[in-house]
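Here is my example:
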Amino acid sequence: MPSPHPAGHCSAAREWLANRPLRDDPRMAGHGSSLTWDDWVRQGRDAEACLLEFLRGRPDPVMRSDIALALGFVGGERGVGPLIDLLTDEEPAVVMEAAAALGRIGDPDAVPHLIEALTSADPNVRANACQALGELRGDRATAAVTATLGDSDPFVRAAAQQALIRIRR
């Protein structure tokens, strides 16, 4: 299936994603690139379509993580299903970003999948799932986050406390 984007549009975006430094801080993205993070976000649905196209190519874990991060800022309903799929990725960093992205997008269809992510062996995944559920709110999210207050990891417990504060606002 041919790309629905103008020639070079997705390839420029792919180059930016692959080369952006300081991956964990999107405010610092764009150094050494003609495309800044703000430019990327302003592309909205066009950027979302490119990101989903990249994801279909099963990129390496770092790129999958970056795509999940970016989808959280530019994505809409088209990105929800692929992000839910990333919640079962073998790399915890990818799952963490997917959970955070689902929280930012705010689609309630993600709630049962984020609740499942609370059972991950990785405490960072559980913490991000708590935070995402805090963004999504609702009875099921609140009950799951409340149960996580008893998690064995102090970081997860702190994330659950913060999520409950967010829910109650």
